[in-house]
Structure formats: C-alpha cells, structure tokens
# Entry
Amino acid sequence: MKALVALILLIQLPAHRAAPAAPPPAPLGCDDPESEAAAEFAVNYINGHSHHGYKFALNRIDNIRVVPQGLNNDIMFLELDLLETTCHILNPTPLANCTVRSFTQHAVEGDCDVKLQKLDGKLSVLASKCHSHADSSEDLLQMCPDCPLLASLNNTEVLATVTAALNEHNSNSADPYLQLLEIGRARIQYHPAHSVSVEFAVAATNCSAGEAKDNVEACQLLPEDQSNFGFCTASRLIRPSEDLRVDCQLYGHQPGVTYSQPGQDTSAGLVPSVAQGFTNHNLRLSHNNPVASESASSEFPSSVLSAKPVAKRAVAEAAQHDKVPRPVGFVPPPPPCPGKIRHFSI
Ligand SMILES: *[C@@H]1O[C@H](CO)[C@@H](O)[C@H](O)[C@H]1NC(C)=O
Ligand SMILES: *[C@@H]1O[C@H](CO)[C@@H](O)[C@H](O)[C@H]1NC(C)=O
Ligand SMILES: *[C@@H]1O[C@H](CO)[C@@H](O)[C@H](O)[C@H]1NC(C)=O
# Structure
C-alpha cells in the first residue's frame, strides 16, 4: 500500500511541479524546428487558399512570437518571406517538388503575416494576410542586363501571344478544345531579339477541336465533377524572324479542385481584369482569408513591435560577449530572428 501511494505521488509529482517551477521558456528562434513546422503549415494553408497565380515557397522566417494561452495552448504570430514557384495553383505537384523561380526569371516575393494556434501540438491558422510584388526591374537589370522583364498581363503583345499560342495548340493537338482561364505571367525581351514568353492556365471544354471549329460558342467548360485543368507555356519570337512554340499539359480531373471563374469570385474580387496593368497576381487578392483583414491587421503591428526588442537585445548581448576572449572554437549563437534565407534575397 505504501509503495502504491509512493508510486502515485511519483507519477503526479512532475505535473504538480511543472506549473510553479517552470522557467520562462526561451523565445523561439526563427530557425528552430518548431518555427519551421509552423511556417510549413502556414505556407501550405496559404497555397491551399490561393485561387490565382502560382504556389509560393518559404524563403525566410522573418519573425515569430509565441503568446502562451494556457497548458499546451499557444498563439503564434509568424512573419514569412515567400518566393513564387513555377507551379501554378492548379498544378497538383506537391509544393516540395515545385521549383522556386530564379532571380533571373524576374522573381516575385510574397510577404505574409500569419496567426496560428497550437493546441495540444495541433496547428491551425486563425488568420493570414499576404501581399506579393515583383522584384524591381532595376535590381534585375543590374545583375542581368539582358534578362527579359515581367510585362503587364494585359499588354497587347502578351494577349496576342496567348491567343496565337492557344489557337496553335487547339488546332494541332488531340486534347479537347482548351479555353483560357488566366494568364499567369509574361515576359518581353527586346534585345538581342524581340520575343514574348507567356504562361497561362487553361481548362478543357466539352468539345473536341473539330466540334469547336463548327461552333465554338457551344463549347463549355466541363462541370466541376469532370473538370480538367492544365497549363501552357509559350514563346513567340517576333524579330529577327517569326516563330511560335507552345507546350500545354492537362493535369486530369482532380476531385475537389476548383477554379473561381471571373464574376463568380465574390470573395476576393479578383477577376482577371483586376490583374490588368499588373505584372503578377497579387497574393493579397489571390489568397482569401476573410478573418485576416479584421484580426490580423489590428493585431500584427503591436505584436511585431514588442517582439523586436528581444531580438535586438540578443544581438547586443552576443556582440558584448565577443569582446571577452573565448576559448578557440567558440561560436556565438546566431541571433534568433530573422532566420536563414533558403533561396536568395531580393
Ligand atoms: C517529389 O520528389 C520526391 C523526392 O525527390 C519524389 O520521390 C517524388 O516522386 C516527387 N513527386 C512528384 C509528384 O513529383
Ligand atoms: C457542350 O455543353 C453545352 C452546354 O451544356 C451544349 O449545349 C453543347 O452541345 C455541348 N457540346 C458538345 C460538343 O457536347
Ligand atoms: C491594361 O490595364 C490597365 C488598367 O486597367 C489599363 O490602364 C491599360 O490601358 C490596359 N492596357 C491595355 C494594353 O489594354
């Protein structure tokens, strides 16, 4: 009996002790595995809720702040730098297999603030807010004077190239007749040759090429339970000679994957016309989280500000330590935030 009581006490002891004796937890660093797991979860959420443009990959965790709510219950605020990949949002390739677009392809960066809850080890996104922008043309031209720059998605040459490329594909392929969903990105080069390269998302209609020739107006996008999305890349050489290359890939039916058609996308208001005059789809509009605009915008500025002094102090302390002679091999701890750059900085 005594032994049993002792055993019960022993089992209960850690739980009893934990609360009063727990030291304040060390602040999470941006490159800690727990931060990376939260960031990965957030990025998947953001891509899962994007309706236009491309999937984004994590480039750097800029900041993380954890606000404990109770036992095994934390609220996490993350600031993330993302980079555009070559996978369109309708592309079923898992993000880990998507290539981040290189700097010379005129990179597009996304900035996201995400509020997560971690309850009993399980993450959920409470709010998220993103926007994206292309790298400045000056930056790109400085590094790569001949690189083609992103062009407006409604540029006349871009539209002409997309139309020509889609016609070319539709008249020379055994695929069903494809209809344009959205232009993803476009670049124009003037020197040494004049060329236009475009990328666009498409969807299969219920017509074959022959049926479309007879009556294209009757061709409709397939209903949701049969939808078949795809993606085309095309390049058109205009000078010194004319040439057109197009390559389209249909992904096959993906249950549950839908595309918000223009006019039906009331949530974010992004119809292709909204991208008019812009070189990239804005993640702010492409990515739809109704909670974000209310809670994230009001909560982020203060939380971000209050997190900064901690990082600064750590850096200052590390600098202080450096003045003291250290045994050979001493490496000062890296500052907890921002974290490492995974691809490149723009
Ligand atoms: C993704 O990459 C992994 C590892 O390289 C590979 O095993 C897997 O087949 C790839 N998946 C797809 C869908 O490409
Ligand atoms: C495609 O669907 C539309 C609307 O349902 C229909 O009017 C048309 O005949 C169909 N076309 C073909 C080739 O089946
Ligand atoms: C592209 O869209 C912008 C904004 O709507 C408009 O001002 C511009 O004239 C358009 N350009 C072309 C070539 O249609």
Q: What stands out?
A: Helices lie at 2-21, 33-48, 137-143, 156-172, 209-214, 283-286, 290-323. The domain at 33-137+290-321 is CATH 3.10.450.10 (Nuclear Transport Factor 2; Chain: A,).
